[in-house]
């Protein structure tokens, strides 16, 4: 995790530290968020401007990028309704036929799998 001082931008250098927190809240009664549960993920990155172009470097020690089953492919499939994005599309086929439960929380049966493909610009 970045320390507070590391999130400050030095005006003489075109390096931008970035911390993004994504949070998903379940539906709450009467609009009170205290009664609902939430899932969150924090991603850290550093972007550097070099010759007019921005280059990103994501924290390589972040354990949250690989599929929790095969540990090699990037996560691209979310389990619904719990919203855990924890598997690659190939491994997502397995729980459907074995346990039908999320590999993270194991609490709820899998209703649907949502595959999210991210274009990282490598095809350009």
TrEMBL record:
Pathway of action: Protein modification; protein ubiquitination
InterPro entries given in the database record: LOG2-like_mRING_C3HC5 (IPR045195), MGRN1/RNF157-like (IPR045194), MGRN1/RNF157-like_N (IPR058981), Znf_RING (IPR001841), Znf_RING/FYVE/PHD (IPR013083)
Biological process per Gene Ontology, one example term: protein ubiquitination
EC number: 2.3.2.27
Family, as annotated: Belongs to the RING-type zinc finger family. LOG2 subfamily.
Protein's name in the database: RING-type E3 ubiquitin transferase
Span of domain RING-type: 67-106
Matches recorded under SMART domains: RING (SM00184)
Lineage, broadest ranks: Eukaryota, Viridiplantae, Streptophyta, Embryophyta, Tracheophyta
Gene Ontology MF term list: ubiquitin protein ligase activity; zinc ion binding
Pfam families per UniProt: RNF157-like_N, zf-C3HC4_3
Top-level taxon in the UniProt lineage: Eukaryota
Alphabetical keyword list: Lipoprotein, Metal-binding, Myristate, Transferase, Ubl conjugation pathway, Zinc, Zinc-finger
Native source species: Salvia splendens (Scarlet sage)
Reactions performed catalytically: S-ubiquitinyl-[E2 ubiquitin-conjugating enzyme]-L-cysteine + [acceptor protein]-L-lysine = [E2 ubiquitin-conjugating enzyme]-L-cysteine + N(6)-ubiquitinyl-[acceptor protein]-L-lysine
Xref: PANTHER family: MAHOGUNIN (PTHR22996), RE60872P-RELATED (PTHR22996:SF0)
Coiled coil: none
CDD domains the UniProt entry points to: mRING-HC-C3HC5_MGRN1-like (cd16789)
């Amino acid at each position: 995790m970045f320390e507070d001082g590391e999130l400050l931008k030095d005006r003489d250098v075109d390096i931008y530290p970035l911390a993004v927190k994504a949070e998903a809240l379940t539906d709450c009664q009467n609009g009170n968020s205290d009664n609902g549960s939430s899932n969150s993920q924090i991603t850290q990155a550093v972007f550097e401007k070099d010759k007019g172009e921005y280059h990103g470097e994501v924290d390589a020690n972040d354990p949250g990028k690989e599929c929790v089953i095969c540990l090699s492919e990037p996560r691209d499939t979310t389990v619904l309704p719990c919203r855990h994005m924890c598997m690659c599309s190939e491994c997502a086929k397995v729980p459907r036929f074995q346990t039908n439960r999320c590999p993270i929380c194991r609490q709820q049966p899998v209703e649907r799998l949502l595959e999210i493909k991210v274009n990282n610009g490598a095809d350009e």
